[in-house]
Amino acid sequence: MTSPADEDALVLREDRDQIAWLTLNRPNKLNALSEAMIAALGVALDAIADDVSVRVVVISGAGKAFSAGHDLKEMMSKPEQGPCEVLFNACAEMMLKIHRLPQPVIAHVDGIATAAGCQLVAQCDLAIASDRSRFATSGINLGLFCATPSVPLSRAIGRKAAAEMLYTGKFITAEEAARLGLLNRAVGAEILDAEVENLALEIASKSPSAIEFGKRLFLSQIDRPLDEAYAIAAETMAANMQHPDARDGVRAFIDKQPAPQWKDREA
């Protein structure tokens, strides 16, 4: 298991006071969720699931972003449907690990959380962000609908609000995210760490078995099976990546060029 001293690790872990603090550690890439990052986070979650000393998990991002979503350059290196399905299904399975984890997971957000980064926030059981954070499912601006992010987002904030985020790709503030229910609350950056720690400690003080039973019940009675939704969403996103609009849009973004003219929908 990694530690904060291991600067090369993609996911850092520090345990204190029965809380596992996980940090996405690609600050120079805005903590983009590469295949390796997804795998590393999955390994960390598996280890925590079996660790009875951990009662609460906190996920944060190193540097100035929580996560900017999938690594677009990596995606464009293997844009065919097969590799895309492997990537999006791996990400969906990692998100499902959070859903299945016996411990509650808190997102600690300080900076942008876009696309799959916003998905990660929505998938966590609770979330607190600094008031300078911003959120978006911005794939639509590249011609790539955020299909997999739509799964937890629509469950977190409801259909109408999720639809507006997904169809427009616009950023929302932390205050708006809290109003919609994506966050528990937005706070000043100077007190973010304390707010998250206080919430984690309060939950950690409760009966671990009651929390485990409660989380399982709480999520199962709200959602239809996430496996089905994620399977459909991953297939949709991989198929979407085959459309020229998506490839042209992603390529333009990487090359820092204006967005291309989108093609008309086929009849």
What does it look like?
The protein is an alpha/beta fold. It has one domain (1-188, 206-267): Alpha-Beta Complex (2-enoyl-CoA Hydratase, Chain A, domain 1). Helices cover 49% and strands 16% of the residues. It contains eleven helices and ten strands. It has helices at 35-49, 72-77, 81-100, 116-123, 147-157, 159-168, 174-180, 192-204, 208-222, 226-240, 244-254, and strands at residues 11-16, 19-24, 56-61, 65-67, 105-109, 112-114, 126-130, 134-136, 172-173, 185-187. The strands form two sheets. Strands 1-2-3-5-7-10 form a six-stranded mixed beta sheet, with helices on both faces. Strand 2 (19-24), helix 1 and strand 3 (56-61) form a beta-alpha-beta unit. Helix 4 (116-123) runs parallel beside helix 5 (147-157). The longest helix has 20 residues, at 81-100.
How large is the share of residues in beta strands?
15-25%
Query: What oligomeric arrangement do these chains adopt?
Result: single chain
* CATH superfamily descriptor: 2-enoyl-CoA Hydratase, Chain A, domain 1
Number of distinct beta strands: 10
Rg measurement, Å: 18 Å
Which parts are unreliable, with pLDDT below 50 for 5 consecutive residues or more? Answer: 1-5
Gross geometry? globular
Span of the ends, CA to CA: 52 Å
The string of secondary-structure elements, in order, is EEHEEHHEEHEEHHEHEHHHH
Structural class: alpha/beta
Count of DSSP H/I helices: 11
Q: Main β-sheet, in a few words? A: 6 strands, mixed
Q: Can you tell me the CATH class?
A: Alpha Beta
Share in helix:
40-55%
What is the residue-mean pLDDT, rounded to a whole number? 93
Strand order within the widest sheet? 1-2-3-5-7-10
**Domain tally:** 1
CATH topology: 2-enoyl-CoA Hydratase, Chain A, domain 1
CATH architecture: Alpha-Beta Complex
